[in-house]
Amino acid sequence: MNGSRLIKRDETVLVVIDMQEKLMTKIANREEVIKNTIKLIKIAKLIGIPVILTEQYPKGLGHTIHEIKNNIPEVNPIEKLTFNCYLSKEFTIRIEETGATTLIICGVESHVCITQTALRGIERLKVYVVCDAISSISEFDLEVAIERMKQEGVIMVSTEMVIFELLEKAGTEEFKKALEIIKQ
Fold first, then answer.
1. What is the mean pLDDT of residues 149-157?
2. Residue 98 placed within a domain
3. Most buried by CB count within 10 Å: which residue of 23, 42, 89, 161?
4. Residue 88 per-residue DSSP state
């Protein structure tokens, strides 16, 4: 994809994948992933970036954990059975409705739904996967997923990289509010 590799707020959607009750109890680095995902959600809300939330087979895996859902009560999750979010018609429609050309992806599991969605996403969009806001049950699977996505051309970033690229400058009221979020 041509053009700037910097993340631009008016072209971006945040995708939070499958942070559900039964999955999250077993996820490696669970607390860090939750904390960083909440920061991303709060920043998205602060600067007006749309948020899309998915749930993989909620009848079996439960719904989105309350720590996440409490921060985006207005967002209705997309229920899916497919690992690749793009195989859900509702997901594809919601992405198209945002007009976004850039996806920021966080959630679980990194080697399944995150990887498959990111690899499909790069066919059309710039895709940034937030390494400290994704995980798997197995740390090995997490490491392999990150390496594969890098090899395939997905851009790997950290939570703070995303936040500061979206903010672009210091000294504004928005920046002051963002600092409070970053320090949490």
1. 97
2. yes
3. 23
4. S
